[in-house]
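Q: What would this chain look like folded?
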Amino acid sequence: MFKKILYPTDFSDVSKKALEFVKGLKEAGAEEVVILHIVDMRHFTGPDIGSALDLAMLEEAMENRAALEIEALEKELTKCGFTVKTRVEHGIPFREVLRIEEEEDVSITVIGSHGKSNLKEMFLGSVSEMVIRKAKKPVIVVKR
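A: My prediction, written as structure tokens:
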């Protein structure tokens, strides 16, 4: 039923909790997991942030951190018997999740209810809420 899972992560505690749900879908016949992390550079723009060089260094540092985190997740899911594909993308998180959902033709998306920016999400709407509203495939949202 759910052969291919999209697992967007920002490496927050709730996204790690969502990982347990991903693992549980192995028993339901899931075979492949696409681990997705989105580098959202919107938070680092503006005149007070610094030069373009500073932004490039920040982006590189974020990508390096994401690569390390994803590598650990990939190993963990491979041990569970999944085929794993990893992706690090740049953009607006909910848009990228929806784009990758379609591009990868996943069966289901498993996402945490709130990530690292809880206060912002309370006022502007969370990534998970936008994914729920616009996703074409089923979505499991894991609460804190």
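The two ends are 26 Å apart (CA to CA).
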